[in-house]
Amino acid sequence: MSTVQTAPAEPAAPPALPAPVTLSERALAEVRRIVANKQIPAQFGLRVGVKGGGCSGMSYVLGFDKHREHDLTFALDAAADDPVTVFMDKRHGLYLMGTTVDYHDGLDARGFVFDNPQATQTCGCGSSFAA
């Protein structure tokens, strides 16, 4: 009687986690416009984060940067021909989970706006928050 040995099954890959931060269609379009007009290097991604300071205790960070040691990387609008790569320090996830970044271009406001469900208090200008 012969026995057939089989290789142990590969463990299943963990399910992909949703990005803690999303960008609206308007924000994605504005980021792509900035990348094209400012000739942002290909190795740079959009950094979303927080830092201490501001009227309410923490301020948002939004800019282009290289990948750093503690970063999580997300591809937003991955189905598009040019997805937006987002870097976020994994330590900032607690403060940003569920945040949506929108872009306003109107008579009363222009710029990126954060809608953060983790914020318990925000300042009048919307650029800082407490969690």
Automatic annotation (TrEMBL):
Annotated organism of origin: Rubrivirga litoralis
Segments traversing the membrane: none
Protein's name in the database: Iron-sulfur cluster assembly accessory protein
Pfam family of the protein (one): Fe-S_biosyn
Limits of the Core domain: 21-126
InterPro entries in the cross-refs: ATAP, ATAP_core_dom, FeS_cluster_insertion_CS, HesB-like_dom_sf, IscA_plant_cyanobact
Domain of life assignment: Bacteria
